[in-house]
Amino acid sequence: MSYQALYRVWRSQRFEDIVGQQAITQTLKNAIKQEQISHAYLFTGPRGTGKTSAAKIFAKAVNCPHQVDGEPCNECEMCKSITEGRQDDVIEMDAASNNGVDEVRLIRDRANYAPTQATYKVYIIDEVHMLSTGAFNALLKTLEEPKKNVIFILATTEAHQIPATIISRTQRFDFKRIQPSAIITHLAHILDQEQYAYEMPALELIARCAEGGMRDALSILDQAIAFSEQTVDLQTAMAVTGSLSNETMDQLLQDCFSHQTTQALEKIRELLYSGKEAKRLIENLLVYCRDILIQKQAPEYLAQQATNYTEAFYAFSQQVSETVLYQWMEILNKTQQDLRFTTNPTIYLEVAIVQLASCASTPSKTLLSNSEHSTVSEADLKIDSEQVQSLQQEIQQLRKELAELKQNVAKQSIQTSTQEKTRRQSNNHSSNVQYRLPKTQVFEVLSAATRQDLDQVHQAWPELLQHLKVTQRALLGASKVQAASPNGVVIAFGYEILCQKAANDQELITDIQNYLSLIIKNYAPKLVFIPEENWPELRREFIQMRKSQTQQPNNVESSAVSTEASQEQASQMPMEVPVLTQDSGYMDALLASEEDQAAHLENEVVQKAQELFGDLAIIEDN
Fold first, then answer.
1. What is the DSSP track for 98-113?
2. pLDDT tens-place string over residues 27-60
3. Which residues are bridge partners to 124 per DSSP?
4. Which of 36, 114, 142, 294 is most enclosed, with most CB atoms within 10 A?
5. How confident is residue 175, by pLDDT bands cut at 50, 70 and 90?
6. Contact of 425 with 459, CB cutoff 8 Å
7. CA 527, CA 507: separation in Å to the nearest integer?
8. How confident is the model at residue 609 (pLDDT cuts 50, 70, 90)?
9. pTM strictly above 0.70
10. Pairwise CA distance, residues 24 & 173, whole Å
11. CB neighbours of 566 closer than 8 A, spacing ≥ 6?
């Protein structure tokens, strides 16, 4: 058989083999033992922490006929077929390359059929955050109402990119980064089983470079074995990872501390020529400065990490101060960020070394200045009494001039405030008329408005807000749908400035129409934005216009109107009078709301009169 990488050979086959995730594995085992199996799970966490392995083990455990305490036996035909990937009822899909709606619809259709061999049909979707919006919507209904004996396991490294509607329908398990000590123990176990010689400092370096990922640690170990062929020692690990030795970092930081900039730059050039990467060098120096700081403040904590340092390390930690270390770490951290966006990292590395050498152990100028001032004699501080008197007279004269200036400034400030107030009033008046009400468009929507359209828009509105961006959602949070027709929607905003901003945001209008057509099939209305304070006036004007149209007499005599009255009415009507075709139910509701408001106002007036005059008040109906 061809060679396989270590992370494939040593992939966990039981829950107890997964390193560093005891809380998650114990929860899954208990759920299997107690037969409290959910229909959907979400595994999130950094790369190489065991998400996919846990998903396959879970698929084996729920289908294994011989499972004990939630662990699969790995001996039966069912376990072997799932491990080898030939079980038809356990489907693995990579969402990075199968992220379309058609692939998810195929899964949804296949989920309707019962499993053929296994007890549960398990779908494992890796990198699920790569699915498109349409694919998530197609998967949503299946997760909400799953079929019997169907389990979905979603794995991702980017949980924040998954819609909240998907997360709320799953049981979420967050896989954490694996501790270096656990990685070292697991690597030592593998090397013992593979019968390879190794040194513990080499495994410590590999575990630190893996950054909490077991798969990365096994990949680095695989390279080290291929490089050395005999023993995985510290030199081999440094050559594979591109790290610096403790002796090299001791010499480099000592040169920086002693202001030996030329020697420090020469060492950096030799390291780069030997194949080291600038990013790895900065990272090693940052960690080394951290270790020196910990050694100065908490040496017991550093000793628990079982890291082998040289005598020069402990000697240097006694020489350098915490202030210098803080400066160095700030420079290295900024350089590490700059290296992410540059195509020439060598320049940033050399500049960082120059900065390290220039800021270390600089003498304090404050102490020198204090010592110089201490030698000043008391005789030099004496001032002649005549000079004091002249200064006092000048101070009194300046106080008088200052009082006069204050009076003049007060007069000018009053005039300025009056002018500013006038200017603000004119600006406020001009700002109030900036937004032009789309009266004709509002009347067009009201002429065809129905209660059914308004109800379905109200029902779809919460889901619509979930699809929009955060800024768009915040903008629509101060709005309310007032009317809806088959071809239009009237949206009222609490503030005029928000209404104008929404009317000018073409992206917002397009997104609302697209998502409404997605939620309400074949419904892409025209959006009309108005300030909320103008809605009662527009509604009242539209109702009066409708009453005047419906109450027009059919005979010629009553329909004759004077020329002046007709001209006045025409000036008050909009440019285009829409044809009233709305259903009577919604129109009656508008009329009723108008009459209710009038009746409510009349009741308040009567009640107030009774409170003021008591029994003397006589209520008469006109």
1. --SHHHHHHHHHHTTS
2. 999 999 888 888 899 999 988 888 999 999 999 9
3. 92, 153
4. 142
5. very high
6. no
7. 13
8. low
9. no
10. 7
11. none
573 pLDDT above the threshold of 60: no
The DSSP code sequence of 191-219 is HHHHT-EE-HHHHHHHHHHHTT-HHHHHH
Strand, helix or coil for residue 167: helix
Q: In 3-state terms, what secondary structure has residue 184?
A: helix
Amino acid identity of 425? Q
Nearest by Cα to 448 from 576, 583, 550, 539: 583
- In the chain the first and final C-alpha atoms are separated, in Å, by 104
DSSP string, 64-88: -TT-BTTB--S-SHHHHHHHHT--T
DSSP 8-state class, residue 363: P
Question: Which tokens in the block code for residue 609?
Answer: 């009169």
* 151's tokens: 């389990």
Structural element, H or E, at residue 479: strand 479-485
- Token output for 387: 């000079």
CA 502 from chain centre, in angstroms, equals 23
Integer Cα distance of 155 and 47 in angstroms? 10
Summarised one tens digit per residue, pLDDT across range 454-506 is 888 888 888 888 888 888 888 888 788 888 888 899 999 888 888 888 888 88
List of E strands, 117-264: 121-126, 150-156, 171-174, 197-198, 231-232
Dist. CA 519–CA 525, nearest whole Å: 13
Strand 197-198 vs strand 171-174: parallel, antiparallel, or unpaired? Answer: unpaired
Work out the pLDDT band at 270, boundaries 50, 70, 90: confident
Per residue, the 3-state secondary structure of 405-436, as one string, reads HHHHHHHHHHHHHHHHHHHHHHHHHHHHCCCC
The C-alpha atoms of residue 100 and residue 129 are separated, in whole angstroms, by 12
Characterize the bridge pairing of strands 150-156 and 231-232: unpaired
In 3D space, the residue among 291, 323, 332, 283 whose CA is nearest the CA of residue 310 turns out to be 291
